[in-house]
Design goal:
Nucleotidyltransferase, domain 5; two-stranded antiparallel ribbon; 8 helices; 44% helix
Length: 258
């Protein structure tokens, strides 16, 4: 499964590193020698590294929300996919985090926060524009991942000091910086792009005897492109915005349930 292939392709072979996958789904996981047995956990499964389990939280709250915005709101601007992503990054950069109060719950495709949850923009005024909405989408996806990480860390005795990211957001330095600031930890970006495919190839290479085990394969295949350190000024700003994000979820729960 790709949520196991991506972490192994990013060299996750022990308990010390967190894996973040951003695609249609936001998937966050870590490896541990003990499975977590809790009905509130998304999944605890056997990992590709012998003796380890993949402890995972996930929901359909990642880059698919940006794809929706591009297809439904921006597509009339008649650009190529690559140009759209560049446009989005530039629009997000045009707004500082402290200057944008718009919030977005990235639940276009649902979430495990509430089975009836739906997406929404909150805080729009006549002064806002596409840049405000895009920044809110980028932040909402990062906050949703933070929501997963916060839950996962409740099961982990020792925290993690670094995360490795794969999937669509890893192609955007603007978004990677936002993840680092929201999570308040360094984010490593892998040189390889199709990490699900790479992870599957690594499994085949071990099965074929080209490598002794997955740890040896990971050492050969994983290479970091760069590490993004958190911006301490933004860390403080996003900490406040994340609290508001969670408060908004709590406020909307009653509406969704009704």
């Amino acid at each position: 499964m790709d949520f196991t292939a991506c972490p192994i392709a990013t060299g996750i072979v022990d308990e010390t590193v967190l894996s973040i996958v951003g695609g249609t789904w936001a998937i966050t996981c870590y490896a541990d020698k003990q499975p977590v047995q809790d009905k509130d956990l998304f999944m605890s499964s056997i990992y590709t590294v012998d003796g380890y389990y993949n402890i995972m939280e996930g929901s359909m709250t990642s880059a698919s929300n940006l794809e929706w915005f591009i297809q439904k709101i921006l597509k009339e601007e008649n650009k190529s996919s690559k140009e759209y992503y560049g446009l989005c990054n530039n629009l997000v950069k045009s707004k500082r985090p402290e200057d944008c109060d718009v919030m977005f719950l990235p639940y276009l495709y649902g979430t495990n926060a509430n089975p009836r949850a739906q997406a929404c923009f909150v805080g729009l005024t006549c002064m806002d524009d596409k840049a405000s909405m895009l920044r809110a989408i980028y932040e909402g996806v990062a906050f949703s991942t933070c929501y997963h990480v916060e839950k996962l860390m409740g099961y982990k005795k020792d925290g993690v000091k670094i995360a490795r990211i794969s999937g669509g957001p890893s192609n955007s330095k603007v978004w990677v910086q936002m993840f680092a600031d929201v999570l308040d930890m360094p984010i490593e970006v892998c040189k390889a792009k199709e990490l699900g495919t790479l992870g599957a190839a690594m499994c085949a290479a071990v099965a074929d005897g080209r490598f002794a085990d997955m740890k040896e394969a990971a050492q050969a295949f994983y290479h970091a492109s760069y590490t993004c350190e958190p911006n301490e000024d933004n860390v403080k700003i996003y900490a406040g915005k994340y609290r508001e994000f969670k408060r908004l979820i709590g406020t909307m729960d009653a509406f969704w349930s009704a």
